[in-house]
Amino acid sequence: MEADFALGAVQVSSSPQERFSEYLQSRGKRITQQRRALIDHVFERHDHFDADELIANLSRTELGDKVSRPTVYRTLNELVEAGLLRRMNLGGRAVYEHDYGYPQHDHLHCTMCDTLIEFQSDELQRIRDAVGREHRFRVTGHRLIVSGVCQECSTKRHRRASPLDLV
Amino acid sequence: MEADFALGAVQVSSSPQERFSEYLQSRGKRITQQRRALIDHVFERHDHFDADELIANLSRTELGDKVSRPTVYRTLNELVEAGLLRRMNLGGRAVYEHDYGYPQHDHLHCTMCDTLIEFQSDELQRIRDAVGREHRFRVTGHRLIVSGVCQECSTKRHRRASPLDLV
DNA sequence: CTACGTGCAAACGGTTTGCATTTGG
DNA sequence: CCAAATGCAAACCGTTTGCACGTAG
């Protein structure tokens, strides 16, 4: 999957690596080779990925197959818990993206090529909070995915997006 | 799960049963006992449910255990395809609600009791379409889930909503 | 009569887990 | 040292599928 640099990073005081170390140490967890390899790889560039892509991608590097599948899953969970990654669910599988040092945003999801395009809307945020207030609901977050077909795919030959494609 | 009658039904020309029959016949599919039992049960009242709840619920009726698990799954897929049900994904499993004759809406999801509260926002629709235009993206639909804690759960004793709870 | 649908059991795919072994602090 | 993490293989869980039998039209 291609990187989407639609939004700029916000400045943060420490690197993801430092953040993760703090998180681990504060919980008596250890900084292992595998965790280092994973966080370095994951924060090398901003994109969306699932566990399989990460594993495939990782095994192409020198770090190679030094990290097993279960460890990848375990570490992804830790990175989410540490606030470094955000997880969303797309058609049954978990998809991850950078959270730490990255602004709140939502996604357009092309049902043909599966690409995720990021966008930001303050208005949306406003609506979300207003609706929460109306229902006396304490809002902690939201997930919006707009489904459709991206420009490139629109110009190519078509297949109908079925209702089954909707997230 | 409780029914949420937050929004009123819009009037439609034919019943879900009739709609389903049309759908089936137009495709050379058959109107079987099982399909009848399922659509009657599903449209008895408006609520959100997953496959397991439907099966459990159904086996409590006289129709009893006349419908097997695979048939429930197969029929749910047909009902979605027929435009009678909408499917959304909540924490790994599929959740269904009435689509036919029911207005477009989104959900507040309480991460403590798992209840879904419906709300409607024209503004949201507007934003969605505007964003699509900006990105030359042909929008076919969207899914928004606002996570948080509902009023009842807020007043009860707490457990922290972890980031893992986010849809 | 003959597809189409069903039920069963088994497969599936993404993710998690029990356990013996390795390793960080 | 020893608790925590890893790798392996197996379990898990929601969902789908192959196949022989049943049934709608």
Description:
- The structure is a homodimer of 167-residue chains.
- Chain A is globular.
- In chain A, the strands form two sheets. Chain A has a three-stranded antiparallel sheet with strand order 1-3-2. A three-stranded mixed sheet of chain A has the order 5-4-6.
- In chain A, strand 2 and strand 3 (93-98) form a beta hairpin.
- Chain A folds into two domains: 14-102, Winged helix-like DNA-binding domain superfamily/Winged helix DNA-binding domain (Arc Repressor Mutant, subunit A), CATH 1.10.10.10; 103-166, 2-Layer Sandwich (Dna Ligase, domain 1), CATH 3.30.1490.190.
- Chain A starts with 15 loop residues before the first helix and ends in a 12-residue tail after the last helix.
- Chain A is α+β, with helices and mostly antiparallel strands and 167 residues long.
- In chain A, 36% of the residues lie in helices and 21% in strands.
- Chain A has six helices and six strands; from the N terminus they run ααβααββββαβα.
- At the A-B interface, helix 4, strand 2, helix 5 and strand 6 of A face helix 4, strand 2, helix 5 and strand 6 of B.
- Chain A binds a DNA duplex (25 and 25 nucleotides) through residues 28-35, 50-52, 67-71, 73-74, 92-94.
